[in-house]
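Q&A log
Question type: sequence-to-structure
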Amino acid sequence: MIGNTEILASLLGTSRQTLSTLMNRMIKDKILKRVNRQYLILLDIPYLEALMVGVSAS
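Response status: OK
Response body:
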């Protein structure tokens, strides 16, 4: 059975391991908060907006 992280990673064009590493870093940096194994809360929308601008400018 494929898990949600694997599906999301596939949609984003990355590996499950890379997505998991990045999500854990964002949790540590208080950008995301893990509610439980299925849900995350986005705590810092401006950070992700700035990240998105940086990616689109590349």
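Response note: The CA atoms of residues 45 and 51 lie 10 Å apart.
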